[in-house]
Amino acid sequence: MLQLPGSNCEPETARAIAAAGGRPAIVRWNEPAEHLGRFSAYVIPGGFSYQDRIRGGAVAARLPILELIGRRATEGAPVLGICNGAQVLVESGLVPGIRPGGLDLALAPNRMPGRDGYYTRWTLLGRGPAGDRCLFTRGMGERIVPIPMAHAEGRFATRDPGVAARLSEFVALSYRTPEGAPAAAFPWNPNGSPAAAAGITNAAGNVLALMPHPERALLAAQVPVALRPPGEDPGAGSDEGPGLFLFRALVAAVEA
């Protein structure tokens, strides 16, 4: 797991990986590249790398260590970016990768009626059009899972009409309404992202840039009662939470 200046979600993300059966290690951005090259998978956690200067993730994406992660992704290594980590992956061009070597998207400020800036709430996520291709989501079936989000710049955006026309092809996870439909409007689409995009993958399906925080939904007791399945015990503190499936998929991909 890559620790960047300003990231702050390393401990809970490491706990999530360990809970899924993985062996996490935190590697700082300025350690020798060979220290990172020996790992089988890579996670870039949330936070505010380089104070979100310019745009979230824009500065961190230019670090030499991201070139190594890019090479490992090309070799097939699983790569997961969460919130600020998702912004880093987008700004590095690793997702969606429509134009190799170029940047297809950016994470723009949230579009919310009557307010702007940082926003946090529980969202509902379902598998998107690229869900079958993405190794993190292909096993989730048709489930709708509650996962919290917390960001100010979470709207996937582009000025390229060609990229905009193809964006849905790369949506691995989409925001959903309580009825299960893709969420077009606030509040279930919390940032105005087109195609209800919550998580974007690459063509190979081994890289996922996800704006919500699955590491904050590891226990069933963390989920608001109103979003739990009917009949679930509200006091269940040790039952597996809805966010763990992504980390189980990561560990399973490494083991495979």
Question: What structural class is derived from the secondary structure elements?
Answer: alpha/beta
Give the strand line-up of the largest sheet: 3-4-11-10-9-6-7
Distance between the ends: 19 Å
Helix content: 10-25%
Strand content: 15-25%
Shape by Cα distribution: globular
Q: Can you give me a brief rundown of this structure?
A:
This protein is an alpha/beta fold and 256 residues long. 20% of the residues lie in helices and 18% in strands. The protein has a single domain (2-255), classed as Class I glutamine amidotransferase (GATase) domain (Rossmann fold).
Question: Can you put this structure into words, describing what you see?
Answer:
This protein is 20% helix and 18% strand. β1, α1 and β2 form a beta-alpha-beta unit. The mean pLDDT is 94. It is α/β, with parallel strands linked by helices and 256 residues long. The longest helix has 12 residues. It has a seven-stranded mixed β-sheet, with helices on one face. The chain has a two-stranded parallel sheet with strand order 1-2. The protein has a two-stranded antiparallel sheet with strand order 5-8. It has a single domain, classed as Rossmann fold.
Question: What secondary-structure arrangement, pairings included, does this model have?
Answer:
Blueprint (H helix, E strand, L loop, with lengths): L1 E2 L6 H10 L7 E2 L4 H5 L4 E3 L19 H11 L4 E4 L1 H8 L14 E3 L10 E9 L17 E7 L3 E3 L3 H6 L4 E5 L21 E5 L5 E4 L33 H12 L1
Parallel strand pairs: 1-2, 3-4, 4-11
Antiparallel strand pairs: 5-8, 6-7, 6-9, 9-10, 10-11
